[in-house]
Design a protein that fits this description.
This protein has two domains: 49-193, no CATH class; 203-377, Phosphatidylinositol 3-kinase Catalytic Subunit, Chain A, Domain 5 (Orthogonal Bundle), CATH 1.10.1070. Strand 6 (168-177) and strand 7 form a beta hairpin. The longest helix has 20 residues, at 142-161. The strands form two sheets. Strands 1-2-3-4-5-7-6 form a seven-stranded mixed β-barrel. A three-stranded antiparallel β-sheet has the order 8-9-10. It starts with 15 loop residues before the first helix and ends with a helix. With 378 residues, the chain is an alpha+beta fold. It has eleven helices and ten strands. The relative contact order is 0.14.
Length: 378
């Protein structure tokens, strides 16, 4: 297996300011590396563990990248070798192609989608997997590698807040171009649970709708997702509609109980434009009155009395676990870890201040007229 370009096996020390805050608030949590995912037995094998998988992808990668600007991109066959928990190697056939929209066009290392053969993966770690999205560095270099870690932590944060979220798994992946048009390299990447698999795990159905009406959204789930987006300072989403010509919704998967399509649950994904990740290419949407992507600006809907308060209480109940996630990760460099921890802590300080909550959250909600109309007809 080719050597790693960057090693993430070594634990980094917790910066002093983070260590002091964590010791004062919840020292016992420091013993936990990463918060365990609840109901792991319901997940497919790939997502039942948080250890980092070691794998090698051998394929005509340069050919796949050459198709990046095409609307129709063909799958190209390759090989996938991974090591199990006992260090034994397993070989699988698969196909790859580039995926995504902005990152596919912008990034030197366009993101890939893996397409496994379902019959071949039976009784392996990848049992049940068919198509898997890889989130990988946009370009070579340690700074871009850290952005992937931060986006992974964003997914993990939402997993802490609710089981109605995408599962993820880290992979230290070596890329080998079988045509030898590119030198081999190794990055820390992660894969995301398939949306259909997530819906099945939760006992829900995935909706393919054009848009959501104000009164069709599950209010508690929506308010929780909106607070999460504020936590990571992400404004690159919509829970009401998708881009023109696409299904609803922008960077939000819409689920619902079977037979009840008017109780729609948004599940957020794709956080590279967030302030938490703070990618070089990220910028706030032009219609939002902020200049910097790190500036938090609430874009949630107005909710019936008690809904937002319950969502804030739910987030506050997970405060120790969320902060521990960022304080304990061995994947961030010390300076990045410190600044990121303080950035997350600032969000909870906002929730602690009733005046700021009223001004910066409740007072900025969208759809007051629609809420009043909805409540008048109940």
């Amino acid at each position: 297996m080719p050597p790693s370009v960057i090693s993430y096996d070594k634990r980094v020390p917790i910066p002093g300011i983070v260590r002091r805050v964590m010791r004062n608030l919840f020292a016992p949590i420091l013993l936990v590396l990463l918060t365990p995912i609840s109901a792991a037995s319901e997940r497919l094998p790939l997502f039942q563990d948080e250890s980092i998988i070691k794998a090698v992808l051998t394929a005509p990668i340069a050919q796949a990248y050459a198709q990046r600007e095409q609307d129709v991109r063909l799958y190209i066959p390759g090989k996938w070798v991974y090591a199990d928990a006992d260090g034994e190697n397993h070989r699988l056939d698969l196909s790859i192609r580039t995926r995504g929209l902005f990152r596919r066009q912008y990034c030197d290392l366009a993101p890939l989608q893996l397409n496994f053969k379902k019959k071949q993966v039976k009784d392996t770690l990848f049992a049940g997997q068919n198509k898997l999205k890889i989130v990988a560095p946009c370009k070579h270099g340690a700074q871009w590698q850290q952005k992937v870690v931060l986006e992974y932590l964003a997914y993990r944060t939402f997993q802490i807040l609710t089981d109605t979220s995408f599962s993820t798994r880290l992979i230290r992946l070596s890329y080998v171009d079988s045509d030898e048009k590119q030198e081999p390299w190794t990055d820390l990447v992660f894969v995301i649970e398939d949306d259909d698999d997530m819906a099945d795990r939760l006992g829900l159905v995935k909706l393919g709708v054009v848009s959501n009406q104000f009164d069709q959204l599950d209010r508690p789930a929506t308010a929780l997702a909106e607070l999460f987006q504020l936590l990571i300072a992400n404004n690159d989403f919509s829970m009401l509609q998708g881009p023109e010509g696409d299904e609803c919704c922008h960077n939000s998967e819409i689920l619902a109980p079977e037979g009840n399509a008017d109780s729609r649950i948004p599940v957020p994904f794709d956080f590279d434009i967030s302030g938490l990740v703070n990618a070089k290419y990220a910028a706030p949407p032009s219609h939002i009155p902020i200049r910097f992507v790190r500036t938090r600006y609430y874009r949630g809907l107005c909710h019936p009395p008690g809904i937002l308060e319950d969502a804030m209480a739910q987030v506050q109940s997970k405060r120790a676990e969320v902060l521990a996630l960022y304080a304990n990760t061995p994947l961030l460099e010390p300076r990045t870890k410190e600044t990121t921890f303080l950035y997350i802590q600032e969000f909870f300080e906002l929730l602690d201040d009733p005046k700021r909550v009223q001004k910066e959250i409740a007072g900025r909600c969208r759809g007051e007229d629609e809420l009043a109309e909805m409540l008048s007809t109940d």
